[in-house]
Amino acid sequence: GNSVTQMEGPVTLSEEAFLTINCTYTATGYPSLFWYVQYPGEGLQLLLKATKADDKGSNKGFEATYRKETTSFHLEKGSVQVSDSAVYFCALSVQGAQKLVFGQGTRLTINP
Amino acid sequence: DTGVSQDPRHKITKRGQNVTFRCDPISEHNRLYWYRQTLGQGPEFLTYFQNEAQLEKSRLLSDRFSAERPKGSFSTLEIQRTEQGDSAMYLCASSFGSYNEQFFGPGTRLTVL
Predict the structure, then answer these.
(1) Quick check: B100 and A91 CB within 8 A?
(2) Tens-digit pLDDT profile for residues B43-63
(3) Lower Cβ count inside 10 Å, N or C end of chain B?
(4) What is the rounded CA–CA span in Å between residue A77 and residue A35?
């Protein structure tokens, strides 16, 4: 079946630290991969995506590279800000299946 | 802003009552999805419509749950005879395009007492 595993949280960092949130997946076929973010009191927002192997998605200083050989899509940011505090979800979608399969989420807190 | 909207945002009900939630997708989106999210977990897929046709239902969707999308526009999700285990955030999303980029609404938080 299709599944997504994220590194367990919560993660607490200081402002300007380097961030990595690990995400690995299992999928039948060739999935599209996504990172969604949920800020406190708000709905899920698409942060970035990648649709094929070796694609790099990027947005707001965040990056993730679709690694087919390691079935991974790790989220990175070089210098985090307090405003990045949120819950981050890795997700996949297999073509034809339409639905998104989410990981359990990683809560990130950035201290000033 | 013409994003996905959901109504109500919060619903408190007693066990055994019926509840109905509404979702209005982004106007040009032909696909509409319902998910359920419990505390500390990622959203779980419930069901999916393309236009007015319900094309997939999760095994999570028991017989007490029914969803409709008349005329391929807004959608409703009804839960009959609610149970405490139904307490969750119910999310609606819509999409248009081949890479399944889904846009989410703010959710309806259901509390069953």
Answers:
(1) no
(2) 999 999 999 999 989 988 889
(3) N
(4) 13
